[in-house]
Write a structure and sequence with these properties.
The chain has helices spanning 3-15, 37-43, 51-61, 153-157, 170-191, 262-267, 272-279, 289-297; strands at residues 76-80, 85-89, 94-103, 139-142, 165-168, 193-201, 230-238, 244-252, 269-270. The protein has 307 residues and is an alpha+beta fold.
């Protein structure tokens, strides 16, 4: 299916996401530097895009097509922002993947102010609740990092919607995952821009294939939010001659035993093909078969230089 069909269907889907609630739950547990609730509420209007804005978002942030299988109810929905796109799993209540173009001038801006809250574009019973993460042993792991969206207070505040989260062990979040996010921002500055695809993998049995919903591990005590077994990041950059180059990392969501530096990330470099199999998602559907195969099979032997 071509890009034009993807665009028209996505606009229809997004327009069907009519306001299910005029109220979003603002979490009482925000950590350091919380954004005042009243201010966060003002920014929620930024998340409601019209048809032309949805088309512009998809063209910018999904240049190789809407990843397949597509975000379709009852399983998932696409949530469009001007600065990125989220595919939100309505059953597991996590972000399955996010996609965005990150430019060097996007990274110098406002200081982080926490604003964890539910997403007003999704019905309350389809949102995670703030309590789902409390006492669960997991952190609210951003898929689109707030530091990548520091260009304005509204943009950064709306990365704190719980639809942009997945349960992540603090051991991963503060170590290898945080280091990888730092690398991505450095690459955006070095190369001018990169394209970033980040997501959740559910493969508890380790067979390299996506688990069925019934195999999902859930947060406790609520048992409402699915816990990914792994997280991935695919970064695409364009060489001076126009050739696309990919770098892919797949990290286990573990509470201990993970490194945090370049060595550990290098050990977990992988292929886009492996992530495609494990997630069940084709991230480059509109590329020609030959180009897609080349990009998906490549495994980078080293992390790209940061400066």
């Amino acid at each position: 299916m071509g890009a034009r069909s993807h665009l028209s269907r996505s606009v229809v889907l997004a327009l069907l996401l009519l306001p299910a609630s005029v109220w979003a739950e603002y979490c009482t547990s925000q950590g350091q530097n919380p954004l005042p609730r009243k201010e966060a509420k003002q920014y929620e209007d930024e998340a409601w895009l019209g048809p032309s804005e949805i088309v512009a978002s998809q063209r910018r942030h999904l240049p190789w097509g809407l990843p397949e299988p597509q975000c379709l109810r009852p399983a998932a929905v696409p949530l469009y922002h001007r600065e990125y796109v989220v595919c939100y799993d309505l059953s597991r209540k996590v972000a399955l993947w996010v996609s965005y173009r990150l430019e060097s001038n996007d990274l110098d801006g406002v200081t982080r102010l926490n604003a964890f809250r539910t997403d007003p574009r999704v019905a309350l019973d389809e949102n995670p609740r703030c309590a789902d993460y409390q006492s669960s042993g997991f952190q609210r792991g951003h898929l689109v990092p707030s530091a990548d969206m520091s260009r304005s207070r509204p943009t950064q505040a709306n990365t704190f919607f719980l639809t942009n989260m997945a349960p992540q062990y603090g051991h991963l979040n503060s170590r290898a995952w945080g280091t990888l996010e730092d690398y991505v921002r450095a690459w955006a500055k070095k190369y001018g821009h990169v394209h970033v695809l980040t997501g959740s993998v559910f493969d508890r049995d380790g067979d390299g294939q996506p688990d069925a919903l019934g195999q999902t591990r859930w947060t406790k005590p609520s048992k409402r939010v699915g816990v990914p077994s792994h997280f991935f990041k695919i970064v695409v950059r364009e060489a001076p001659g126009g050739e696309l180059i990919t770098l892919a990392v797949l990290l286990p969501n573990k509470s201990k035993g993970l490194g945090k530096g370049e060595t550990f990330l290098r050990q977990n470099l992988t292929s886009v093909a492996r992530i495609r199999r494990a997630s069940g998602t084709d991230f480059l559907p509109d590329l020609s078969a030959a180009t897609k195969t080349q990009l998906e099979q490549a495994v980078t032997s080293e992390l790209w230089p940061r400066n």
